[in-house]
Amino acid sequence: xxxxxxxxxxxxxxxxxxxxxxxxxxxxxxxxxxxxxxxxxxxxxxxxxxxxxxxxxxxxxxxxxxxxxxxxxxxxxxxxxxxxxxxxxxxxxxxxxxxxxxxxxxxxxxxxxxxxxxxxxxxxxxxxxxxxxxxxxxxxxxxxxxxxxxxxxxxxxxxxxxxxxxxxxxxxxxxxxxxxxxxxxxxxxxxxxxxxxxxxxxxxxxxxxxxxxxxxxxxxxxxxxxxxxxxxxxxxxxxxxxxxxxxxxxxxxxxxxxxxxxxxxxxxxxxxxxxxxxxxxxxxxxxxxxxxxxxxxxxxxxxxxxxxxxxxxxxxxxxxxxxxxxxxxxxxxxxxxxxxxxxxx
Amino acid sequence: xxxxxxxxxxxxxxxxxxxxxxxxxxxxxxxxxxxxxxxxxxxxxxxxxxxxxxxxxxxxxxxxxxxxxxxxxxxxxxxxxxxxxxxxxxxxxxxxxxxxxxxxxxxxxxxxxxxxxxxxxxxxxxxxxxxxxxxxxxxxxxxxxxxxxxxxxxxxxxxxxxxxxxxxxxxxxxxxxxxxxxxxxxxxxxxxxxxxxxxxxxxxxxxxxxxxxxxxxxx
Lengths: 345, 219
Prior knowledge:
Strand order of the largest sheet of chain A: 6-7-8-3-9-10
Largest sheet of chain A: 6 strands, mixed
Strand content of chain B: under 5%
CATH topology of chain B: MetI-like fold
Shape of chain A: elongated
Largest interface: A-B, 30 and 24 residues
Number of domains of chain B: 1
CATH class of the largest domain in chain A: Alpha Beta
Structural class of chain A: alpha/beta
CATH superfamily of the largest domain in chain A: P-loop containing nucleotide triphosphate hydrolases
Helix content of chain A: 25-40%
Number of strands of chain A: 14
Distance between the termini of chain A: 42 Å
Number of helices of chain B: 10
Radius of gyration of chain A: 23 Å
CATH architecture of the largest domain in chain A: 3-Layer(aba) Sandwich
Oligomer: heterodimer
CATH topology of the largest domain in chain A: Rossmann fold
């Protein structure tokens, strides 16, 4: 796999009336061709600035961005515009032309690229079929639902056969079901056309759903990056842990609060089951072996890159010697074990 | 007594007023449209920020707009004579009307363009669109409704200014109202002139608003 996007030592500082604000600090990451790469962080972490640096909508203050080995910073305006035609973008608020109908919106990047109107319309029709909106060709964006608008935006983004698709919070304005269908569409596009996709989001569920790799951004710094499955199983940083624990979605908020209550002052561990460890009744066996009750605070299975993974949070007995032995027991059985006390505060 | 001569004069007045108003609006937009576009584009939040260009056009617009129209009318008389050959009559009035209208139109265009959602501009930039493409295919298209409302306002305002030019023999309905109504105390003629002016403004306002609603695809 070739390197599609290579970001080196990228920093971005904004000059505001209140002085300088450093939005991004020394970010280095590389994205391979064909990846679905997630960039996740809390709002204000700088992820939207980062994605705008990938097509130079924002010029980095220092550092370089290379697309297929070509340095964007060294390009002339014309070269940069030509390169941007290979990097499409979709947005949280869709950003369609409100005064143009669906088909003209999709034709727009083609017309900019110099294609004849007739050919552009033909191509637009094909794209409408891909996003399953053929019957809406002559509708105006204001007549469409949020999900439909994002489909039009995706069709528009695909029109010029880009190599890269940047998604800036593309599902954040959509309801969960629509989000699912848009994510599925992005997944299909990635598979069918091999387009490299970069997804900016604050929702762990989005990353879990479709991303192969993820970078976690916190306060302008890159705090962790790697395969989604690795980070999900062994999060190293506080930011990663927080995002994973919060990743279950807002509907569990009350449950989480209760959980936090239960975790207070207790020794708690989070264990992740991979495929093989699911066969043996590990927890039950451990309870039998040590003769001590274990409180299961949370248990869940999640689909990470198509593989089912179990996640559990256990509250261990107060005896520290016992805790040590139990952790050793769990580790012996191939489970990833880590203390989650730090998260409670 | 009302005579057919008076009716003819009134019709000529309407014709002259329409001529002045529409021609000045046309020339006003020929100057004001690029003026407003450059203002919006070179502003620090625009797509091609340029402080020097913005400031120059900004100050010029403010200067021209702060000169009262009647004074402007007299100030530009040498220019009017150079272009038209005389300083009275409806054709000559088009010159000061255009000069007064252009900065006003420029400001309205500037504000219409600034209303366009920045996200759409960003989307166009991400597709590799250049400055001119963004102006023609994004800004002016998305601001269409607002610009048309502006045209309606501009026509109404210019029509009012054209009547003011009647004070110095500018031609049209305002001229008639001044000459007959003010200098000869023929109140009836003045009232008829004013009613005709009101009717004209009303017609343009209605047509303009209908057109802009019809062309607005946002709802």
